[in-house]
Amino acid sequence: MFRVLIIGLGITVQSGLAMADHEHETDQSDIINVIAIEYPPLLGEDLENYGIIFELLSSYANDHFKIRIKPLFLPPARAKQNMTNGHWCLSTYPADSNDIDAYFVRLLDKTIKIGLYRKRRAGNTAPFRWNSLSELGGSSIAILRTNVQSPYIESLMRAGIKPVYVETRHQAFQMLLGDRVDYAQGDNLTLDAMPDISASAVEFSDTVMFETESGFYYRKSCADQVFKAGHAPHLIENQPSDELVQ
Q: pTM for the complete prediction?
């Protein structure tokens, strides 16, 4: 599950991922399809690593799953139907509150904050913040390319902001440092993934556009299929502390 707060736009959005139909879970391969809902910049078929949320889930899977995962993007109604029908094993789409087989795993203790980066300049002494997107009107922002015209992109264009689509986050920062755009969209974890971009060269905004908590649900009845031995969280928490598997 992830909860997205669109700061300054007055909107709260809930979205996520769900597991694919049962036939995908039990085929002869070691890959499980994870249903994904298009919601850039957090999730998207054309986003780098399919977006921040799937990137985090993939990292967790590398350490704890004995199977591989891949996204299968579906409309929200179809994803919700899969959850309601119990046709899932892994999901970041909220599980039904009455589903006692569902178990939640938090992926990050801190939230992901999505905002803008600007190039550090000697003349930029004021904090990098804004009260309304219209204050950024006339500027250009490097944004990861998507195949949808999302409400977020539409809100930028209504404010007079020009989105400049790029294929990777690294390309966005190259354009920013090369003075080809005014800002680059990113998050508070972006620089950790790009060690060649110095924090002294760019500045992250105090104002954030999205803030999200990241985690996922799994069905306890699928644990043996999904997790490496000793890695299922619902079993670990019931063990004495000296028996925990890290």
A: 0.62
Q: Whole-angstrom Cα distance, residue 78 to residue 229? A: 32
**For residue range 100-158, what is the model confidence (pLDDT) as tens digits?**
998 888 888 888 888 999 999 988 889 999 999 999 999 999 998 754 456 788 899 99
Q: How far apart are CA 153 and CA 151, in angstroms?
A: 6
Q: Are 88 and 18 spatial neighbours (Cβ–Cβ below 8 Å)?
A: yes
DSSP 14-70: EE-EEE--HHHHTSSSSEEEEEE--BTTTB-TTSGGG-HHHHHHHHHHHHHBSSEEE
189/221 Cα distance (integer angstroms)? 33
Taking CA atoms, 178 is separated from 68, 157, 171, 189, in Å, by: 38, 23, 10, 22
Distance of CA 240 to the CA centre of its chain: 33
Q: Which two tokens stand for residue 207?
A: 């104002």
Region for residue 177 given its phi and psi (left: phi exceeds 0; alpha: psi -120 to 50; beta: otherwise): alpha
- Rounded-to-integer distance, Cα 10 and Cα 74, Å: 26
The one-character DSSP state at 96 is P
Name the burial class of residue 246, with classes exposed (0-12), middle (13-18) and buried (19+) by CB atoms within 10 angstroms of its CB.
exposed
Q: Which of 88, 85, 54 is nearest to 71 (CA)?
A: 54
